[in-house]
Design brief:
By secondary structure, this protein is α/β, with parallel strands linked by helices. It folds into two domains: 279 residues, Thiamin diphosphate (ThDP)-binding fold, Pyr/PP domains (Rossmann fold); 149 residues, Thiamin diphosphate (ThDP)-binding fold, Pyr/PP domains (Rossmann fold), CATH 3.40.50.970. It is built from 18 helices and 13 strands. The strands form four sheets. A five-stranded parallel sheet has the order 3-4-5-9-8, with helices on both faces. Strands 11-10-12-13 form a four-stranded parallel sheet, sandwiched between helices. Strand 4, helix 6 and strand 5 form a beta-alpha-beta unit. Helix 1 packs across helix 4 and helix 14 runs parallel beside helix 16. The longest helix is centred in the N-terminal third of the chain and has 22 residues. The relative contact order is 0.11.
């Protein structure tokens, strides 16, 4: 079990426990540099899962960086796709590409997208980013391996908040039913998600009991104790008869004092001052060429900008949006208008808002901010778009005015059949908000960019679709559609 030359079958390199610990620290540092260079991304979860990533890629998994498509390799599925930078630095540390390359993270044209895209980067097994789907993919791969008589393992990395997605439990049931002992799931239990503590948003524990009820073997470890992680991975490989889940107790933002156990650092990148402080706490100040790496990222961006400029039509004047002095306008994000309307109209006792874990981001939480009397009409549903949509239909059938929302590609595509059947065919009044639509979230990668959500919604019966252009239009549209 290690990095292996698939041609000679010789081990490329073995790592001791102290060496794995040192590599995990170095990977944390490169991860933070890449996030700083990108200016966006997910610091908290990448730091919590890094010890696991180091142990998995440098010790437990059979793979060959020189032959990413080696048929006998172990497959590693990152269902928690937002932790992609941890995947990238693990691949770089393994030798798939120079580790320095990861600093182009989230930039246009970079293979290191905000969420993994397997068609862009060797070593990535499949494209992910919509939570809850990875275990199903891993189940399919495990079934294929059984059919073909292959002995490799399939690993699936998930978060504990992700366990709120119903699809996870469909896959857990299937894997247990088929006794897929070539499948090893790993849950990064850092106890936090965007909206706060997992136990407060939507309780998922006791995970041991729940997985065991579906026929899984369970192991719980300290996700920052390298020896425990290695021993658990080795033990999981040796267990037969049923799938295995390793529940790793971790700390979000591990290793950086001001990031640890802070939900605010879920989807946030450090600035240069914060980066320097973090690297100092990790003992990496003199071990990573920060200035050279950041300049490399800036150079990459300058070239991208030049290519974009060269591809644009040129006129005697610059008509680019907000470029000219007489054309400048101050604009809030469109989603701000959504929150403003909910704040203004939320006094209507019929209105019920459903939170889907990105509540502050899409501003649906403005419904109750500063108005505690409305909390009785605020329902935290967790990461569960499909169930929440049908629950909203139930609320509407009973005379409520339910409001829910997420990123557009999740609030209109993942739950499309629930909208079609539960909401539209019954012609129920449910307000669904889709934020960050189209290609406006380019750095997040292909899985979060969507245009099909718009035409999918327009094709539904009894559905009114409004696409406001700014915060003012969004507020007025929400006023009109809501009441």
């Amino acid at each position: 079990m290690a990095l292996r030359d698939s041609g000679t079958e010789k081990i490329i390199r073995s790592y001791s426990i102290p060496e794995l610990e040192a590599m995990a620290a170095l990977m944390r540092g490169y991860n933070l540099v890449a996030l700083c260079a990108a200016g966006s991304g997910h610091a908290g979860g990448t730091l919590s899962i890094m010890d696991i990533a180091a142990a998995l890629y440098l010790h437990a998994a059979e793979h060959d960086p020189a032959n990413p498509s080696w048929p006998d390799r172990d497959r590693i599925i990152w269902s928690a796709g937002h932790k992609a930078p941890a995947l990238y630095v693990a691949l770089g540390a393994s030798g798939y590409f120079p580790l320095d390359d990861v600093v182009t993270l989230r930039k246009l044209g970079s293979p290191f997208q905000g969420h993994p895209h397997w068609l862009k980067l060797p070593g990535v097994e499949i494209s992910t980013g919509s939570l809850g789907q990875g275990l199903s993919i891993a189940t399919g791969m495990a079934l294929a391996a059984k059919m073909d008589g292959q002995s490799h393992r399939i690993f699936c990395l998930m978060g504990d908040g992700e366990q709120q997605e119903g699809q996870v439990w469909e896959a857990a049931m299937e894997a247990g039913h088929f006794h897929l002992d070539n499948l090893i799931a790993i849950v990064d239990c850092n106890r936090l998600q965007i909206d706060g503590w997992v136990k407060d948003v939507m309780q998922v524990e006791p995970l041991e009991t729940r997985y065991a009820s579906f026929g899984w073997r369970t192991l719980r470890v300290d996700g920052h104790d390298m020896r425990q992680i290695v021993e658990a991975l080795d033990k999981a490989r040796s267990m037969t008869g049923d799938p295995v889940v390793i529940l790793a107790e971790t700390t979000k933002g591990k290793g950086v004092s001001f990031m640890e156990d802070q939900a605010a650092w879920h989807g946030k990148a450090p600035n240069r001052r914060e980066l320097d402080t973090a690297l100092g706490e990790l003992g990496l100040t003199k071990k990573i060429p920060v200035d050279r790496l950041l300049e490399g990222a800036a150079k990459f961006q300058r070239e991208v900008d030049r290519e974009l400029r060269d591809g644009m039509p040129h006129f005697s004047r610059d008509y680019w949006w907000n470029a000219g002095e007489t054309m400048k306008v101050t604009m809030e994000p469109t989603r701000k208008g959504f929150g403003q309307s909910l704040a203004n109209n939320g006094g209507d006792e019929r209105i019920v808002c459903l939170g889907l874990d990105i509540s502050a981001s899409i501003t649906i939480s403005d419904f109750y901010n500063g108005k505690p009397e409305r909390l009785k009409r605020w329902i935290s549903m967790g990461i569960a778009e499909q169930s929440a949509t049908s629950a909203a239909a139930g609320l509407a059938r009973e005379g409520k005015l339910p409001v829910l929302g997420s990123y557009a590609t999740f609030s209109a595509a993942r739950n499309l059949n629930q909208i079609r059947v539960s909401v539209c065919y019954s012609s129920l009044n449910v307000l669904i908000a889709g934020a960050h639509g189209g290609v406006s979230v380019g750095p997040d990668g292909a899985t979060h960019q969507a245009l099909e959500d718009l035409f999918a919604m327009q094709g539904l019966p009894n559905m009114a679709v409004v696409v406001p252009c700014d915060a003012i239009e969004t507020r007025k549209a929400t006023d009109y559609l809501l009441l």
